[in-house]
Amino acid sequence: MPNTVRHFTNSASSLAVSSFSVAVVTALLFCLAAHGCCAPPLSSPPCATPPPTPVTTPPPYVAPSPPAPDSRANATNADTGGWLDDNGGACGFKNVNLPPFSAMTSCGNQPLFKDGKGCGSCYQIRCVAQNHPACSGVPETVIITDMNYYPVSRYHFDLSGTAFGAMALPGLNDQLRHAGIIDMQFKR
């Protein structure tokens, strides 16, 4: 015959545990109703209002820093197009007079060309009137498509005629294209 264990419960002790549980639950509910579920610490009054949030003014606008001034540009091809010989240059890009380049191209010296890793990099360039009276100061975007070996300055952009003229005031692009080497600003 299998061994069986039988449990006998005392109905009086079961009733006492049940009454105690009801009392604990009731006390908890009363406490929650009186103080809320996120009651403040006992040291502060239960209905204290939080201090008002201070009104702050936004920080003043800070203009971005100007592009690096240590750069020079010259237009090797002073006409209105891109490069005279569209042989693909050091980067191998062909038809740079057509979109997406649209002749807004430049050769870059080593810090810009980066042994070919700079191919296709876009730079925002601009010249300002203090550097040449035909400069508009309006930024234009150029794409690095070739290497420039001449040590003109730390950063040197040898711009297409189109890119060089694009930095000029209206009607003065031809004058700017024939300016030779000028100082300009750039950023990546």
What does this 3D model show about the protein?
- The chain has 188 residues and is α/β, with parallel strands linked by helices.
- Helix content is 21%, strand content 20%.
- It has helices at residues 11-35, 110-113, 161-166, 173-177, and strands at residues 68-75, 105-108, 122-126, 140-147, 155-159, 181-187.
- The protein has a 6-stranded mixed β-barrel with strand order 1-5-2-4-3-6.
- It is extended.
- The termini are far apart.
Number of helices: 4
Q: What is the first-to-last residue Cα distance?
A: 90 Å
Strand order of the largest sheet: 1-5-2-4-3-6
The proportion of strand residues reads 15-25%
H-E order: HEEHEEEHHE
Helix content: 10-25%
Q: Give the class from helix and strand content and strand pairing.
A: alpha/beta
Average pLDDT value?
A: 73
Q: Any low-confidence stretches, pLDDT <50, length ≥5?
A: 4-9, 11-17, 35-48, 61-67
Cα radius of gyration in angstroms: 38 Å
| Main beta sheet strand tally, sense and closure | 6 strands, mixed, barrel
* Number of DSSP E strands: 6
Overall geometry comes to extended
Oligomer: single chain
Primary descriptors:
21% helix, 188 residues, single chain
